[in-house]
């Protein structure tokens, strides 16, 4: 993902000279050293000081620049929440904040570096848009859109491993869920690395005669409530899947919408309010219940509840 | 835009002080201590140093001020009103429901406020961002930041201190309102900060220390700071929390209830000082106009 990030940022830097990048000693991790060489004045490595970085971005924004900040998701959210909230959102600035290695993507950096709460944090900031790109095609498309919008944006992005979902040239509308498969038995709503797990689960369910709709909810805030409500009304059961705590993330956001508009059985796949630990991605998916098999299990459960409830009626 | 003389700056400081006391006593309570101690600096900034256009508060070429100690908004509002950024009547609306003058500076509510502040330690970073951006764009403007002394207990201040020196931000001038008292008592008792100059010098800044209630010293300090190339500048202003109020002496006055009688007593005393200045019974100075800052 990071190669595409650099390539997209190159195009953006050339397109709009208001764009400035800031980092906190993770330029080499992000892999944008070529960008640094080509635009040395416009890529600012603050060193290990994330709070200062966010404040500087806010100051730059206030005089008309478009700052793109980067650090790991944990530091981009937890560590700098006050700065993001006040210098950024409250002051109505225009900053794109990239948080990399979301959730289990931090792998061997372990529990201290695993952001299971960043979506939860950012959801409570008024005016914040939260995007979790699924693959490189989407990432590039979204990045290029980010000079044409105004406001605070938090983008949680895997640096390395991802699974290709979208064809070259696909278009994406911020705030609108993508329908990946059609189905009427239940809907799986997923984001980030869980989208490919959801698609794998859909295949397994199809072989069992269960037709699942899969929605890529890459904009977590503001969520595409229409898509959620339609899924509830048309399929009657929902499973959410996220690389995040089940508290306050994608699943909670979906639950908010369902309970107020179209209550249907809901099961959440996510990290069950525990801390992270070291490991390779595949081990961590199993460890935290984030595999396609886990999604299938919840799908079957939610279908049973749906059937029991309609039997009662 | 004509710069005030030293004599005029002294009067301007008195005017700001009078309006601030009226403003806070109209509400009945507020951050009086810290609002009072920045007033001479505000007089020099808005009377001489800042290149701003009151009828065009977002003028791109302007000098910027980030009042990082956002709770001293009330005196900044008085200075802005006297300078013509908004009608003086607004001062009576401080902290009233729906106001455009909230307790902590808000750039989206008040004309002339360049950055929202209130959570201490953040204004140094946002001010640095403004200075950096202006430098990148080749503008010759200056960015000023007012910090509280207690505020320098925040770690983010030192993040900014490192960065500004490393990036040679010589278009940045920081003023510390060193009134030596924070909410819980004297700063030397709560969490000692001195020696400020030694600390900032070791971080690579150009440092000065002035009497924070002497407009002439502040004026010259800013002048020296502007001439310093290759380093950001800090001016440590020794001040007294609540300076100029007859009713704050000896009290810890970070935030107080302000009675109408106390306020009137102070306003009368300040008006007397104003008359004394007018009658030249206080040193008027030689009347020479000083060079542009």
Task: Please describe what this structure looks like.
- The complex is a heterodimer of chains A (313) and B (293).
- Chain A is an alpha/beta fold and 313 residues long.
- Chain A has 2 domains: 2-157, Rossmann fold (3-Layer(aba) Sandwich); 178-312, Rossmann fold (3-Layer(aba) Sandwich).
- Chain A is built from 13 helices and 12 strands.
- In chain A, the strands form 2 sheets. A 7-stranded mixed beta sheet of chain A has the order 2-1-3-4-6-5-10. A 5-stranded mixed beta sheet of chain A has the order 7-9-8-11-12, with helices on both faces.
- Chain A is elongated, with a radius of gyration of 19 Å.
- Chain B has 10 helices and 9 strands.
- Chain B starts with 5 loop residues before the first helix and ends in a 15-residue tail after the last helix.
- In chain B, 41% of the residues lie in helices and 13% in strands.
- Chain B has one domain: Thiamin diphosphate (ThDP)-binding fold, Pyr/PP domains (Rossmann fold).
- In chain B, a hairpin with a 2-residue loop joins strand 5 and strand 6.
- The interface between A and B is medium-sized, with 29 and 32 residues.
Largest sheet of chain A: 7 strands, mixed
| Number of continuous helical runs of chain A | 13
> Strand content of the residues of chain B, in percent?
5-15%
**Strand count, sense and closure of the main sheet of chain B?**
5 strands, parallel
What's the architecture of the largest domain in chain A, going by CATH? 3-Layer(aba) Sandwich
Helix/sheet category of chain A: alpha/beta
SSE layout:
The complex is a heterodimer of chains A (313) and B (293).
Chain A: H1 2-15, E1 19-23, H2 27-30, H3 33-38, E2 43-45, H4 50-62, E3 66-72, H5 73-79, H6 81-90, E4 96-100, H7 118-123, E5 128-131, H8 136-145, E6 152-157, E7 178-181, E8 186-190, H9 194-207, E9 212-216, E10 219-221, H10 225-235, E11 238-245, H11 250-261, E12 266-271, H12 281-287, H13 292-312
Parallel strand pairs in A: 1-2, 1-3, 3-4, 4-6, 5-6, 8-9, 8-11, 11-12
Antiparallel strand pairs in A: 5-10, 7-9
Chain B: H1 6-27, E1 29-30, H2 32-37, H3 39-49, E2 64-67, H4 73-83, H5 123-136, E3 143-148, H6 155-166, E4 172-178, E5 181-182, E6 185-186, H7 187-190, H8 196-202, E7 206-211, H9 215-227, E8 233-238, E9 256-257, H10 260-278
Parallel strand pairs in B: 2-3, 3-4, 4-8, 7-8
Antiparallel strand pairs in B: 1-9, 5-6
Helix pairs in contact in B: 1-3, 1-4, 1-10, 3-4, 3-9, 5-6
């Amino acid at each position: 993902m990071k190669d595409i990030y650099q390539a997209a940022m190159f195009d953006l830097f050339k397109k709009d000279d208001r764009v400035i990048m800031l980092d906190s000693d993770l330029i080499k991790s992000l892999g944008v050293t070529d960008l640094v060489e080509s635009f040395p004045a416009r890529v600012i490595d603050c060193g290990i000081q994330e709070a200062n970085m966010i404040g500087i971005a806010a100051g730059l924004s206030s005089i008309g620049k478009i700052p793109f900040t980067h650090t790991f998701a944990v530091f981009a959210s937890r560590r700098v929440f006050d700065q993001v909230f006040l210098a950024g959102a409250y002051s109505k600035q225009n900053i794109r904040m990239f948080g990399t290695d979301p959730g289990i993507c931090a792998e061997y950096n372990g529990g201290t570096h695993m952001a299971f709460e960043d979506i939860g944090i950012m959801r409570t900031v008024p005016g914040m848009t939260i995007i979790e790109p699924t693959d490189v095609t989407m990432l590039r498309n979204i990045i290029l859109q980010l000079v044409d919008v105004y406001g605070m944006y938090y983008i949680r992005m895997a640096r390395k491993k991802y699974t290709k979902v979208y064809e070259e040239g696909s278009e994406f509308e911020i705030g609108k869920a993508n329908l990946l498969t059609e189905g009427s038995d239940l809907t799986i709503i997923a984001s980030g690395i869980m989208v490919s797990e959801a698609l794998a689960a859909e295949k397994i369910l199809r072989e069992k005669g269960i037709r699942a709709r899969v929605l890529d909810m890459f904009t977590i805030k503001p969520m595409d409530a229409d898509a959620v409500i339609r899924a509830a009304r048309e399929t009657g059961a929902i499973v959410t899947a996220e690389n995040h705590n089940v508290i306050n993330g994608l699943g909670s956001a979906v639950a908010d919408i369902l309970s107020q508009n179209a209550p249907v059985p809901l099961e959440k796949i996510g990290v069950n309010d525990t801390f992270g630990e070291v490991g390779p991605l595949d081990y961590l998916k199993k460890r935290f219940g984030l595999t396609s098999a886990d999604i299938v299990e919840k799908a079957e459960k939610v279908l049973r509840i749906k059937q029991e409830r309609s039997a009662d009626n | 835009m004509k710069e005030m003389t030293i004599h005029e700056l002294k009067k301007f400081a008195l005017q700001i002080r009078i309006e601030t006391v009226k403003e806070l006593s109209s509400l009945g309570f507020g951050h009086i201590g810290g609002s009072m101690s920045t007033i001479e600096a505000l007089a020099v900034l808005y009377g001489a140093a800042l290149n701003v256009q009151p009828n065009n508060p977002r003028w791109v070429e302007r000098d910027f001020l980030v009042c990082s100690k956002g709770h001293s908004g009330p005196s900044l509002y008085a200075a802005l009103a006297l300078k013509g950024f908004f009608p003086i009547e607004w001062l009576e609306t401080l902290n009233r429901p729906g106001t455009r003058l909230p307790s902590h500076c808000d750039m989206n509510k008040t004309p002339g406020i360049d950055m929202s502040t209130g959570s201490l330690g953040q204004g140094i970073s946002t001010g640095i961002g403004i200075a950096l951006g202006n430098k990148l764009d080749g503008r010759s403007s200056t960015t000023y930041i007012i910090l509280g002394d207690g505020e320098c207990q925040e770690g983010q201040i030192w993040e900014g201190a490192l960065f500004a020196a490393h990036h040679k931000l010589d278009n940045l001038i920081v003023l510390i309102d060193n009134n030596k008292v924070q909410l819980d008592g004297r700063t030397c008792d709560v969490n000692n900060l001195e020696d400020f100059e030694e600390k900032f010098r070791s971080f690579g800044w150009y440092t000065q220390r002035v009497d924070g209630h002497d407009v002439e010293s502040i004026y010259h300090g800013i002048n020296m700071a502007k001439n310093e190339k290759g380093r950001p500048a800090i001016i440590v202003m020794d001040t007294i929390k609540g300076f100029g109020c007859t009713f704050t002496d000896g009290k810890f006055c970070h935030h107080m209830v302000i009675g109408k009688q106390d306020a009137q007593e102070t306003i009368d005393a300040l008006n007397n000082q104003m008359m004394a200045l007018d009658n030249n019974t206080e040193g008027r100075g030689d009347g020479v106009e000083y060079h542009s800052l």
